[in-house]
Write a structure and sequence with these properties.
Mean pLDDT: 92
CATH topology: TIM Barrel
Structural class: alpha/beta
Low-confidence stretches: 242-249
CATH superfamily: Glycoside hydrolase/deacetylase
Number of domains: 1
Number of helices: 9
Helix content: 25-40%
CATH class: Alpha Beta
Distance between the termini: 21 Å
């Protein structure tokens, strides 16, 4: 490709929940093949216990994306769960996201990052107090991986604070290769979301061998497919961010 901003085919590999496999095997695999990903890390106990490992991941050029502190969701099993977004106020949610940004900055020395939704509904509160997450995110991050869309993002019509995503858990390399090949004919940006890689750390996961095949395939096609973290793509494609991004590097 001539430059990232002119790329017609973009893939972002994103990984949720700050799992041990992410810094033990995923980041090294990406590094080995010259690729970088986005790790959406909730700033809870597991993150603090492995802060040095995450600092190393960030130093290699991967993005530590904001995934809040407590991963609030509308999908909690208990209706009165303290972290059920139905019972969050807008102030509480924004405070949590800002706190996560501050914590991550202490680890990676960055002030700009993307956000990864913790819930498929994309709203805070309930009833008349409901607020769409994407309406408040512009003050908190450069871009946000939003609700599942199962399809690539149209590069001519990007909603930066509700970027669609395609789940990679329980999918095969052949499925994803076919979708990416199809996208490259028309152009687009596919954000893939995975949790565990291999079955060890999460019930939602992509088979390790299938993931390795995907990474190797993307690495061999870097001239035609730009694989980059969500933040890096946003910095390249948002005109207002390019000069700032270049100065920060």
């Amino acid at each position: 490709m001539t430059s990232p901003s002119e790329s017609r085919c973009i893939v972002s590999l994103t990984y949720d929940d700050a799992l041990p496999c992410h810094f033990e095997s995923v980041a090294p695999l990406l590094e080995e093949h010259g690729l970088r990903g986005t790790f959406y890390v909730p700033c809870g106990d597991s993150f603090f216990e492995n802060a040095d490992s995450w600092r190393e991941v960030a130093a290699q050029g991967h993005e530590l994306g904001n995934h809040t502190v407590f991963q609030p969701s509308h999908d909690r099993i208990l209706s009165e769960d303290a972290y059920n977004l139905r019972y969050y106020t807008l102030r509480r949610w924004t405070d949590e996201v800002r706190l996560a940004n501050s914590i991550l900055s202490l680890v990676d020395d960055r002030t700009v990052r993307s956000f990864g939704n913790t819930c498929d509904r994309g709203v805070i509160g309930s009833g008349e107090s409901t607020t769409a997450v994407e309406t408040v995110l512009p003050k908190l991050c450069i871009a946000a991986r939003g609700l599942p869309s199962l399809k690539p993002i149209n590069l001519k019509k990007i909603n930066w604070f509700n970027l669609g995503t395609r789940g990679a858990d329980q999918t095969s390399f052949e499925q994803l290769r076919a979708e990416i090949d199809h996208m490259c004919v028309q152009g687009g940006w596919l954000i893939l979301t995975a949790h565990g890689i291999g079955h060890r750390d999460h019930k939602l996961h992509m088979d390790e061998d299938e993931h390795t095949r995907l990474v190797e395939w993307l690495a061999a096609r870097q001239e035609s497919i730009w694989t980059a973290p969500v933040r890096v793509v946003a910095e390249a494609l948002k005109p207002s961010r390019r000069a700032v991004a270049q100065a920060e590097r």
